[in-house]
Amino acid sequence: MPPSRMMSLSRTLSLSRAGISRLGKTDWREERRPRSPVRRALRLAALALIFLALPRQASRSADAQVALPGGTKLQEVDFGRHVLPLISRFGCNAGACHGSFQGRGGFRLSLFGQDERADFAALVEHVDVDVPHESLLLTKASGQVEHGGGRRIAPDSWAYAVLLAWVRQGAHFSPKATRAPLKLVPSPAAIHFLATGATARLRVSARLSDSTVEDVNPFCRLESNDPGTVELGSDGQLRALQPGTTHVVVIYAGLIATVPATVRFVSASGPGETSITRQRADTGPGNAIDVLIDRRLDELGLPAQPLADDASFLRRATLDVLGRLPTVEEVRDFLQARDPQKRERTIERLLDDPQHASVWATRLCDLTGCRVETIGGPDELKPAHARMWHAWFRRRIADNVPFDRIVRGVLSGTSRGGRTPEQYIDREVALAQAALTGGVGNYDQSESLDLFYRRTSPDVTLDHPALAERVAAAFLGVRIQCARCHKHPYDRWTQGDYASFVNVFADVAFGSSTELNRAVLAHLAEDRRQREAGRSPPPLPRSQEVYLDRRLAQPLDDPATKAPAPPRAIGGPLLAAAGDPRDALVDWMLRDDNPYFTANWVNRVWAHYFGRGLVEPVDSFSATNPPTHPELLDWLAAEFRRSGFDLRHVERLILCSNAYQRSSKPINQLADAARYYACAPVRPLMAEAIVEAAEQALGERSPWPKEIRRGGTVFDVAADRPTDPRLAYLFELFGRGNRESVCDCDRSPEPTLRQTLHLMSDAEWVKRIEKSPLVTELAAAKEEKVAVERAFLRSLSRLPTPAEEQMIHEHIRAARSRRDAWNDIVWALLNTRELRTNH
């Protein structure tokens, strides 16, 4: 039969390949019904038409070649390697388009092409292999038919030709492709621009499962992590816009690769020249941190600042390590010391100070979600439980307990920890009695932090998905929240991965176990006998515990299998079915080949001392968010493991480096110099440090003693919201956060107009300044020069410059009284940006 008659007959019967498939299914369902001879003949004719057409169609497809950008020819179009990546590249399966849950215009695709089979079933409904150019897939995308998303491709474009060729070749889909993409191979692997305005071209190939390599550049979606630094054009064209570094993210067929891109700074000392070599000779690399940092600075052509002066170093280190200002005596002693090792000795003293443990205990309470509102137990004991939570961490940091043991104590714990139910009840009674006097009893000596699991929510006693998300973010630096509903769009996590990780904690329960209930009834009976005998036993608090009970578990199903997902570490192996999966999870986390745990914690330590992580945000380790200095992150992680997970060892390396100790003076007005550690960043202080610095400067005793342990600072306030309304307001004003989110987004340290207005004009604050011991002391000083120096040392931890000193003397002479003058001066010092930042 001539092809024209075949096509005519096919259109007459309205049978496309997709139509035949659907008709076949309908016929199978109608198999039991008798068919007329005419209907049977029509069906056989249609099937014969398809089989007769196949060789001719194959012959046509063999001759058809699609010219791609770059000069390559595409012989055969594959759904998974070509069609679906094109759909993703043009944004058709994005959340704002057909990839949304409800789809768009009655047409729905899986989000970012995560489900090839479902997408094929949806797309094949919109193709016509008999009249390919009339397929809705083409007419809608090219704007020939009204389309809510507008025209995505031009009818004369190569992309249109690819889709048309796929339809002409029969719109096939092979769920078990023999040439599936396994790995992306970008070329070049790294891009270095010598100046702004320079251009480069990125090519991408894919290594396939049959060991061949295919050019997939036209089908990739490219994104710049910093479009202000490197601009993306068509067909892999890149253009440098400003000096700096970024990464180009390549996404194709579910695979992700990143390509670092560097745009060199133009040195003030001339093209191709910097003052780096001379400055390195002056200071020398402090340790391997500086070798790796300086290597990047050399690539950028960016000079580095020399080390900060002694006063700046002491203030910076004391605020970072202890969360307070150095005292006047500490500043004077440090400035007068001639010991060449005085900085290293000072670092050791700061790390050994008990207040260092309080700062990290607060940080760890933030990460682990110590919130009074959600802590399980009686309301009257919740603030005490928050103090116990903080004390548990503080004791271990003070004792320099290896961090792997701390993490195991958090993740693998239960309430009883080997105690009998009766012993546990006695302990709960003792802790409740200690809480009445503001103490924590001996909770800080507990083997595990069971409070981490003692959580309540409006709907359930223990929200296992939220708990798993917090563990992933805090301890692994991975955000898995997106995978709760769909495949993570910018990482490899699927809904199955999410369910498997949540099920690691499925057996954990918080409440009253059968054994505990029996023990409570026996304890109540004994209390009743004692009261009848005239004795007054301490009251028994409502007793609950964290325990394991597989019978109560409600594991999540894997959407792909519709069966409970086996416990699996996120990005790791299946965990043993026997025993506690949490123990196996911690074992995996501590392995040398674990890609997350050690890197996550050294990244968090780095962020504490520099204001930003090597991976930023710090809880967003992902394929599309690589570290700025990967070699440095790997080296720090290796050092952390080698030291036996010694947190202070990592801190010491950072604090002793030139990168940390550099001056914060900008380099040639380059705003991004601190981003690359050419100079120290100017960072907002934590909310607690601002409050503490103001109190230190004024010389006042804390006005909220009930919130702070004896000898402590506001870093010892354990609760997310203090009971004192004034302190709660200050914490909220300066961005402490309420520890509600599982990510690191609760604290907001950036300065605001509200903060400035408060320090300038809040009536109570201004009154505190007027009546402060500092103003009284300065106004009564006999030597004006000594008073000026003391004012600066108390507030800014440095001596005044000659210009500042002269200005203050002039103000004192012009004022109505010395007290009025010093009141103005102290107010001005406490309102400086210098006080509220670390620099």
Nutshell version of this structure?
The protein is of the alpha+beta class and 839 residues long.
Structural features, described:
With 839 residues, this protein is α+β, with helices and mostly antiparallel strands. Helices cover 45% and strands 8% of the residues. It is built from 33 helices and 18 strands. A 4-stranded mixed sheet has the order 4-12-11-8. Strands 3-6-7 form a 3-stranded antiparallel sheet, with no helix packed on it. A hairpin with a 4-residue loop joins strand 15 and strand 16. Helix 13 crosses helix 14 (382-398) and helix 31 crosses helix 32 (818-830).
What is the CA-atom radius of gyration, in angstroms? 34 Å
* DSSP E strands, number: 18
- Taking the alpha carbons of the first and last residues, their distance comes to 85 Å
Total DSSP helices: 33
Structural class: alpha+beta
- Proportion of residues in β-strands: 5-15%
* Helix percentage range: 40-55%
Catalogue the unreliable spans: 1-35, 37-63, 268-283
Give the overall pLDDT as a whole number: 85
Q: How would a textbook summarize the main sheet? A: 4 strands, mixed
Principal-axes geometry comes out as globular
Order of strands across the main sheet? 4-12-11-8
